[in-house]
Amino acid sequence: MVAEAIRGSMDRWDLSTRVQERTGDLLSVQPGRPVELSGPPGYGLTRLGFRMLTAESHIAPVVGVDVRGWMSPKAAWETGIVQERLVFVRCADPQLWPRVTAALVEGIRAVYAEVPVGVRDADLRRLAALARARQMRLVLRPLADQLPSGVAHLRLRAMGVAWEGPDRGHGRLETRKLVLEASGKGASGMVQRIEVEDAGEDAVRVVSGLAVGPSRRAVG
Amino acid sequence: MWCPDWPLGRPDAPSDETVLVIGAPERGASRVVAASPDAYGAGVSLGMARREAEGLCPGATVLDRDLGEETRRFDPIVELLSEIIPRVEVSEPGLVFIPVAGAIRYYGGEEAIVELLGGKLAAAGISHRLGLADGPFAAFWAARTAGETQIVTDTPAFLAQLDVATLGHDDLIATFRWLGVDTLGSLAGLPRDAIASRFGPIGLQAHRLAHGEDRMIDPREIPPEAAVESTFEDPVYSTDQLAFSAKQLAARLIADLRARGAAPYRITVIMEGTDGVVRERVWRSADPFTEAALADRVWWQLRAWTESDRGSQRGIVRLKLDPSDLSDDGRQLSFFVDETSRIEAERAIARIQTLVGPDAVLQAVPQGGRMPSEQVAWHRWGEEATVSRPVGAPWPGATPSPTPALVPPEPPRLEVEWDEGTPVRVRLRARWEPVLTWSGPWRMTGNWWKGEGSVDRYQIVTSAGAFLCTVDASGITHLAGVYD
Fold first, then answer.
1. How far is B346 from chain A (nearest CA, A)?
2. Contact between residue B457 and residue B480 where contact means Cβ atoms under 8 Å apart
């Protein structure tokens, strides 16, 4: 009886660990495998994008390409990015943006870039090819719609957000739970849903892998 | 010592035709690295873009540069120079740096050394130029601008008359010219702190070069285990195997040095053949070697040794890479910092500055304040930050964390519908979102003595996310941040 109980507990622990490992991979950006973060502002994707630069900022400079001029360095530092290695490049011109981002891809190891409206699909594909060739980490955040297919290795789409803390005037924002839908080659060609908890003070972390959706055509 | 047009000496270059030798693409452009005299007569110059050169010489034979082959031909010359002065440093085939400080006393003066080296090279039929100056940068340009030999006695004065184009950094040169700085002398006359503030580390390096303060070789204590070595039980003859060994060993060395926070400027390649003879060659680079650059040089050197008459039949039993000089930059780094990435990143960011302007390439430092927009001090990349409010001071009533990830510099108006002091709906673009919950108001009195009114802060939560907003005394709401 005891042995069975322990085995059952170990199996549940093992399953939980596997889920954590798999979903944890979905929240990191691999060299040469661009990630797309899509969803409206307010869902927590900027923080997620910053979080993806954190590890790289400990060994080399990282860059945020800021289209609106709204990115907050303090929020980036809260995710663990090294303060003196974070550089912001402001560029809202869709004609200039591909050149600027390509020049960054040539020399920077990790870039989080907002994509302005009006950038041509061909430029985005060339940029993704360059990131693959240079084996750098690129996170793209389109400000309108989604990126064309063939650009991102992994697409993370924000499906919903819920906050804990405020209560009709009392309390304050404390913890955000964000539901993401992962698709593309980086998600093994399947659509997966994951829930991410963000307590603000430390790194964003995965709470659970919720469900694995039906297999669809791969993106990227 | 510089051999102009060394790439032209390759066996497959036709001697009776116009020839252009083109280097590997760099920053998106292939450039001329050598040309035959009639091409120069037609207006071609070294460093010219391939398309432009082909336009000037439409019938020219265009050859791609083969650095491995050039190294093979150049190796005997390095051997010849090493017989006179040891520790010759190869920068690329056709260009070597020779440290002469000790040799001056031995041979009895600078003129004697130059005469001796020139005589040996002339006897071997090598077209060459010799430049003698303080530091590699000045010596290189002394050789480039020499008729045949040039001994520079006053290095700062020599550098002062050189054009800023000698710095070799296109974006930086364009900016210097735009500012009216055309020579290294005029650059050296500018205050160093102003240059450092405006151009960052790249500008600082340029200013040092203009002053004649070249990077001095400053040997640092290198633990013996920093050198990496491969011993082959079966001698290696195949070029593929040699290329693989070179790449593997270069990767090991760079990774080991990176872990020590150092980057090599100079590497000694040591090879032992099956005949028991140990050969070694020193390679140097203006920038710290990257893994790929080092692997290339080791491979060229191995090819030169194995394909020459002296090594072809013997094979290699041992290969060693010894970092004999590490960069000063490496000392300033903490453990695990990637020096090469830092340099590449600085170049990329400097290039971006020329594309978008210095005001669009920014960094920030923390400072005190109550609103998220007040809590960071922005400054241009490469310049010193000015913090106007101490971060360590108490800031009662500061907006609590988490910080909104998006903070508009000029808070825009936000339409909020209120019902007896509680927010009910928020207009987001074209639609109204119901408020799920909120926190606040938190009153911020502001600088009342300057006429600023007080504002109330709210954190408003909707199904589309959370927002930080301020409501002033007249009831107008502004968006202060988006918790994105």
1. 8
2. yes
